[in-house]
Specification:
The complex is a heterodimer of chains A (154) and B (509). Chain A is built from five helices and no strands. Chain A is mostly helical. Chain A is flat. Chain A starts with a helix and ends in an 11-residue tail after the last helix. Chain B has one domain. The longest helix of chain B is centred in the first third of the chain and has 49 residues. Chain B is mainly α.
């Protein structure tokens, strides 16, 4: 294992260990105690296993998990940012259909292998987005009668 | 013979229509690399809300069956397994296709899948009621240990690290405790209003299985799939039937291996296909031909991965313990309709249970018939660019999780769990035990509390939970599965170099 995954493993397992210990602490200190009997049982095992994993990571004995390399991170970052904005802000603020149309089109533009200089590829992306949104509207609004948050444009 | 009594219900227009839809849709989804059967079923659950329980289950069951078989299309024509269960199929299937025998390989795979699948569903039909009767004798302590067994078996057998598998199970069990406590009404771990009502299983399942796949597709960047679809020449179907029955040994080994592996919770189709392939090679008179485009390789692998579908549902329908991640998703599909599987499922909801099982029987035949005709279309769908697939799955995940309760909270839960799961997977954690923990957590807790109350009024907690042959047996299986996995891990490390391990992990989707 190179230094990069080792450091990543230490950070990841350290975070999990922090969560495990925090949950155990909350379980053993919160009242009413009777409501936390089962969480105490679970969190004790959770904390022990999480600390074990952390210690193994610190000692460099982690055997599985390759972490994330720089190239993969660079590739995923734009998509991840679009996803986060779409899910946590745009879907509610702009409305589901508006936000999904924008997010879908942006993701296609970011990751579609067709060259951006090709006008035809843009037409294809617009068509695919429109087709997908038509299917989504038909399925969720017409067939399943799902009431989504109010749209910003209509 | 109750299953015959309810067979007619499968052929009502709506039920049969849904069966067809699930089968054809499943075949196409299964051929799409990156869309696993579990994820396909999870994304379909929101569409079952407005259906009757048996209709919803027919759709989900058909999708489960045919996604496993559909994965063979891309395995054979593109050398990309549609699902982990089809890895063994690529070994001989793709070589056959490159030799101009693509149609024959597809026909063999669908016929073998149908035969294996039918055997597996018959096993489900005959084993389930017997085990369900036996399970009626289970008390709270046994059900508690069974739930723990479900989490530990999947945690240890489905993960490449025992400790990380068990830790994933613990994370799932903890997530299940979030929300209001059922008995005292106390708030537990409510750190955001979105989880005040607890974590809804369906958005969680969608997030845990779909979002990591979406991000994995992002990591491939703007690359296009260079895989070339091999042209399929016509091949008379009667010769394929004759070939399958001529290769009886491979078919029998595949079917029996798949059925046995399906019954063991936590051991999935990927292992069934590979073990059956390996065993067939050992017992074959033409073992040297394996890997060079030999029909026995395709027959063994495909009969095995579909034979495990039926038996993998036995623990779910009898003990309410899902034996696989896809079974866990099906459990979610049952729970949203207020149906809790277990020993009394066949007494309280015989129509739902038997119509579902019967539909799986008919679904195997439909899968064989349609599989042969739409293989070309499915292979074309398999070449849909990653960008389109990622955007479609993301959109479906957001709409699907919102539609569960018309709540943005569910969308946030779905996305947060999905994002966290992607990073956890990169560090060796697995989604399956986490999902099992999330689903079995409430069962484990309810029976633990109930058992503790009985124990306090009678023999004491230690005696109640740790005595009696059935408790011992279950504890023994828990310990045995952990010990076996630790032993296997040590052996694997002893005989595997670090480079091998890294290469193996890099090969994972």
């Amino acid at each position: 294992m190179t230094d990069l995954p080792r450091n990543q493993h230490i950070i990841a397992s350290g975070l999990i260990a922090c969560v495990g210990v925090s949950i155990a602490y909350i379980s053993f200190t919160q009242e009413p105690a009777d409501a936390f009997i089962f969480p105490r049982l679970i969190s004790s095992v959770f904390a022990v296993l999480a600390i074990w994993t952390f210690v193994k990571a610190v000692l460099g004995r982690t055997k599985v998990g390759n972490g994330i390399n720089g190239q993969a991170m660079r590739n995923m970052l734009p998509g991840l940012i679009v996803t986060i904005i779409y899910v946590y802000w745009a879907a509610k603020s702009l409305g589901f259909y508006t936000a999904t149309t924008i997010a879908f089109f942006v993701l296609l533009s970011l990751y579609d292998p067709a060259p951006h200089s090709d006008i035809k590829s843009w037409g294809k992306r617009i068509l695919i987005t429109a087709g997908f949104m038509a299917v989504m509207y038909g399925l969720f609004a017409q067939l399943l009668n799902v009431f989504t948050p109010r749209e910003i444009f209509f | 013979m109750d299953f015959l009594f309810y067979m007619g219900d499968v052929f009502t227009p709506i039920n049969f229509g849904l069966l067809l839809l699930g089968t054809i849709g499943g075949l196409i989804l299964g051929a799409t690399p990156g869309l696993s059967p579990t994820m396909a079923v999870a994304l379909l659950i929101p569409f079952t809300f407005q259906l009757e329980p048996q209709q919803g289950l027919i759709l989900l069951g058909a999708a489960y069956t045919s996604t496993v078989a559909g994965g063979a299309v891309s395995a054979i024509l593109l050398k990309i397994p549609g699902a982990p269960a089809n890895i063994a199929t690529t070994l001989d299937g793709h070589t056959m296709a490159t030799k101009g025998e693509g149609a024959k390989a597809l026909q063999l795979s669908f016929i073998a899948s149908a035969i294996g699948g039918l055997f597996g569903v018959f096993l489900l039909i005959f084993l389930t009621p017997v085990l369900a009767q036996w399970a009626l004798a289970f008390g709270p302590s046994h059900l508690f240990w069974l739930a723990i067994l479900g989490v530990t078996v999947i945690g240890t057998l489905d993960s490449s690290s025992v400790v990380k598998g068990l830790l994933s199970g613990c994370i799932g069990l903890w997530l299940a405790t979030i929300g209001f406590d059922d008995i005292m009404g106390a708030q537990r771990f409510i750190f955001h209003p979105a989880v005040s009502g607890g974590i809804n299983v369906i958005p969680a399942l969608i997030g845990l299985f779909a979002i990591p796949q979406v991000i994995t597709m992002f990591t491939k960047g703007r690359s296009s799939d260079d895989a070339e679809i091999i042209n399929v020449k016509k091949h008379p179907i009667r010769f394929a039937f004759a070939e399958v029955f001529k290769r009886k040994m491979a078919l029998t080994i595949g079917t029996i291996t798949g059925s046995i592996i399906g019954l063991i919770p936590g051991v999935g189709g990927q292992i069934a296909g590979l073990v059956a392939y390996d065993q067939s090679k050992k017992f074959s008179k033409e073992s040297e031909k394996f890997g060079t485009g030999h029909s026995e390789g395709v027959i063994a692998a495909e009969s095995a991965n579909n034979a495990m579908v039926g038996p993998s549902l036995v623990p779910l329908l009898t003990l309410s313990i899902p034996g696989s991640p896809t079974a866990a998703v099906l459990l979610g599909g049952l729970l949203i309709h207020g149906i809790f599987p277990g020993p009394d499922l066949f007494m309280n909801y015989p129509q739902v249970a038997w119509t579902f099982i019967d539909s799986m029987l008919i679904g195997q035949l439909l899968m064989c018939i349609f599989g042969l005709y739409i293989a070309g279309l499915a292979a074309s769908v398999a070449r849909v660019p990653h960008a389109v697939m990622a955007a479609i799955v993301l959109g479906l995940a957001v709409f699907g999780s919102y539609s569960v309760q018309n709540s943005m909270g569910d969308v946030y839960v779905m996305a947060t769990l999905g994002l966290a799961m992607y990073f956890l997977e990169r560090f060796g954690f697995s989604a399956a035990p986490l999902v099992l923990g999330l689903i079995l957590g409430p069962i484990a807790e309810a029976n633990f509390i109930q058992g503790s109350m009985i124990a306090n009024a009678t023999v004491g907690t230690g005696t109640y939970f740790f005595t009696g042959w059935l408790n011992w047996l279950l504890i023994l299986i828990v310990l045995a599965s952990i010990s076996y996995s630790v032993w296997m891990e040590i052996m694997a490390r002893r005989y595997t170099t670090k480079d091998d391990a890294v290469a193996k992990e890099e090969a994972l989707p």
